[in-house]
Amino acid sequence: MSDSTPEPGTAAGTLPGSLAEDPSGEGTDPAAGTPLDPAAPVPLGVARTPTGNAGVDAGLERLADADHLPADGHIEVYEDVHRGLRETLTALDAGPTPAPVPAPMPSYDNRS
Predict the structure, then answer these.
(1) Is the pTM of this model over 0.70?
(2) Which of 15, 44, 46, 110 could anchor a disulfide with 19, C-beta 3.0 to 4.6 Å?
(3) Neighbour count for residue 103 (Cβ, 10 Å)
């Protein structure tokens, strides 16, 4: 579009929201009206759907911690989640603990 043609949804002579808040065009958060820090962590906004397994769901929730960390802090979160998922899978592979076998009943057939 040319500079003189307004964008759809804007009145002539007004700037779109992001340009009105940041005439330099370098970037602002339109919702907050504050400049964006390109080095700041930005949440990915990935939806985490619960699985119904407590161990897996805890790992998914732990992944949310990476959204607020710089990239060099992600590895610690990912390793922690990986460790938790391995423990959960190992527990599933082991299966339920078998019930204890009752002691044999003594024989009351004493024929001497």
Answers:
(1) no
(2) 15
(3) 6
- Cα dihedral 41, 81, 54, 89 in deg (nearest 10): 150
> Which residues lie closer than 8 Å to 30 by C-beta, 6 or more apart?
17, 18, 21
Encode pLDDT of 51-96 as tens digits. Answer: 999 999 999 999 888 888 888 889 999 999 999 999 999 988 887 7
Q: Which of 4, 30, 31 is nearest to 18 (CA)?
A: 30
DSSP label at residue 24: T
Residues 6+ apart with CB under 8 A from 74: 66
What is the residue type of 101? V
Beta strands in the chain (DSSP E): 28-29, 34-35
Nearest 10 degrees: CA dihedral of 34, 36, 39, 45? 110
- Sequence letter at residue 23: P
Report the range of poorest mean pLDDT among 4-13, 45-54, 88-97, 103-112.
Answer: 4-13
Q: In one letter, which amino acid is 94?
A: A
**Count of positions (residues) in the chain:** 112
